[in-house]
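Batch manifest, entry 17 of 40.
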Amino acid sequence: MHLLNVWAKLLEKWNCHFMNRRPLEFLSQIQTNISAIWIGHVSWTNLFHIGEDAPIICMDILSNGSDPCGTDDWVAVGDGKGRMMIAHIAGDVFSPKVDHHSLTWSAEIERQLLGTNWCKSLGFRFIFTVDPRGRLKLWRVCNSLSSASHVEAAYHPELVYEFVSCFGMRIICLDASLKDEVLVCGDIRGNVLLFPFKENVLYTTPIPLEEKVSPQAYFKGAHGISTVCSISIAGSVPSQLDLHSSGGDGCICYFEYDRNRKKLEFTGIEQVKELSTVHSVYSSANYNDNMPRGSYAIGFASSEFIIWNLSSERKVLQVSCGGWRRPHSYYLGHSPEMKNCFAFVKDGIINIQRYWVTENERKMYPKNLHLQFHGREIHSLCFIQPSCSPNGKGCYSFESSWIATGCEDGTVRLTRYEPETESWSVSMLLGEQVGGSAVRSLCTLSKIHRILLKATDVSESVHRQMGNSEDQDNLVILVSVGAKRVMTAWKQKPRSIYETIESQCCEHDNKGGDTSRGSPSSKHFSLLSFQWLSSDMPARKNNCLHENTKNIIEAVENDTPLSSEDKKMESKLDRCENDWRYLAVTAFLAKGSGSKATVCFIVVACSDATLSLRALILPHRLWFDVALLTPLSSPVLALQHVIVPKHLLSEDIIQMGNLYIVISGSTDGSIALWDLTEHVESFMQLLPSLEMVESIDDQKRPRTGRGSQGGRWWRSLGSHVSKKKSACGNDDAPSVYVKEKKRNVSSLDIYEIGPLHVFNNTHQSGVNCLHVSNVTMPTASDSVFGFCVVSGGDDQSLSCLSFDFTSIENLELSTLEHIVSFQLQSYQMRLVLVDKIPSAHSSAVKGVWTDGRWAFSTGLDQRVRCWKMEQGKLIERAHLVISVPEPEALDVRPLDRNRYQIAVAGRGMQMVEFFALARTQ
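Output type: structure tokens
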């Protein structure tokens, strides 16, 4: 029966032009212990013979798919004696034969040759061999003048490179790029390594035996302790290289190699929960409407072989084969849903399962009826304003929108809305919170605010305001917070990076010359791309253990059981700690003059009624606790911030910094203002006094996947620095350690910030949402800055607070009456107007947004209401019943002065477009 299966495979190759995989690959894997490789249909054909004194240990094939009706394969095998043999298999698919001479040489000593790898980018002239101690050898098997039709029998293979892993673990997979001059490898213990790879060395004289190449960068435990099954170079630009790998932990990991810093950084992870082991990732190349381009994860779950569509999140193929330890192979066509083939060996029988539908036979391509989306309630959403290239080109369509959503299922997704078709065109999984914890709040930030660290930096500020600065910061960050006090930061990738990757994929996938599938649609090149930046989750503290240490010690010493009260207290405290969650977040970016580091200041509210100011230092990915905002009598549900420019008191208005004001809304119905300016500036002053020393051995990745190392590195200004550790040492070392340079940081405590002012009883119950907007756009020449805060609460009401900042020297010129006023440095802040709509909705208000001209709100009554703001008063102009049950969040994107896109999310998501007619109409 197995012979008939093999014959069917050969017929399939002839009819469907399977060019890149041969039955040879399937059959060879069950012949490794009898020292021979065979091919055939009814009878076996002996292609070449190494010897009977040692079994075949490893094999790899390099295929040339240029001839659809012929065989053009390079086969390399290694045996237990350390010998390598290479042969060129050519001819008809039914009668392949070894072309000319095969090549044999001794690559390792006995029992030390465990693997061999071709690299497609290097061609048939070079091959790698692997030993068990992490050494990788590159051999030149023929000279540069040899043609692909034969191998010179007299040519003796030469050792060109010898790469040595610092981990001493066997290399499993690799990829190389001559253009980028790098070699990337993955080993059996989850480590990823990057070696320098000079093209000019390939054709020079062999290296001395004592010369070995060490890794230029590496990432320890990229897949935990699980094997790295595949690794590839996804794309490159002059300053960086993008890599991705798959492993035995069921994850796909993404990396970025910075050429300038020579550092390999973790940029993202995708856990394929349906697979326990991801062997490889496959990308199809179909750009027409019938067969869209997509990515597929190929791997195993227990005893099942599974092909999983990562784009549509559905299963393509499932075969019971006994698991990944059985010899197996597969081949996928341009559309794996219509063209796939899998072979495995069981009980000495080759089993082949194939599904191959040609273009002529295909009638309909299977498609999802709907885009994949969240499966539970959405708690937060925000529009993403994509970054543009410095020359202003490459921006997205003006009306198409990207929306980030955070859900109870613990995921963050990016969804694109196309107004032309009035539909959602793309929905992509951005990532998952640590442990799948629910996402409660999102915020996006892009503008970097400058802070002058010393008086001599005034000239730099003048240059920047006059447009003479060459510094073009183009940074978009998305922050998500939620259950288990998990905080994650995501960074938008520069358009040049992922457009280059897309174009390289397109070129690679269309090398066969088949242009019938059409040219890439422009919408495929406008996909927004984010990468994981950093995650933070405070180390769990067992308070009960600390409080009852004495009781526990006494119980152990006296050999008596722990009291029931102690057990109940421990269980209660553990439950309370697990139940803490972040409820709201707001953030802004700051950069000191002359500093290379950018600081992301994050204000986050927790369910234990704490409000804290945190700092994430980039690019070092260090977390710091800066200050606590206290006292708070109840948890905060909503956060916003406003930044007011500070000016130098002179005839020439020069911006000298900013005022940083945070606005919070609590469950008791109060709204509070907090001034962070002093503490933000103090932290930025402290930053240059710390020397950031990079340590490459201890990068962190999110704690996701089986065997992942994760990372909880979190510090405050009061908890100082760990010592530097050895290169391949402890996994728990921080990725960057901070060394004292000028002052003793460990002596500093976490500061406490009191409220600037509290507006009590703004709402009768919880402030569910609030939004702040400037009434008049602040510029450097303005002396008065007006802002309004619109809030919504459980009491079904909307409240509007209008306040302004007036410079003290111009205070006498102001004639506005005010309710409350207080001084902030060179400004006088005054509350000038309060307006309240008691029954704005017939149920609790859940979302609100304003730009100072219009305000939009939504509530549990499933209404979106549009309010015109006239002289600080809210006047309802329109309302609409929406289809989203239990709305939880609202965000708005202005298209022009009186045109808006309104996104509402809850148990689903809906887009509403609002256009205000002229008053005369």
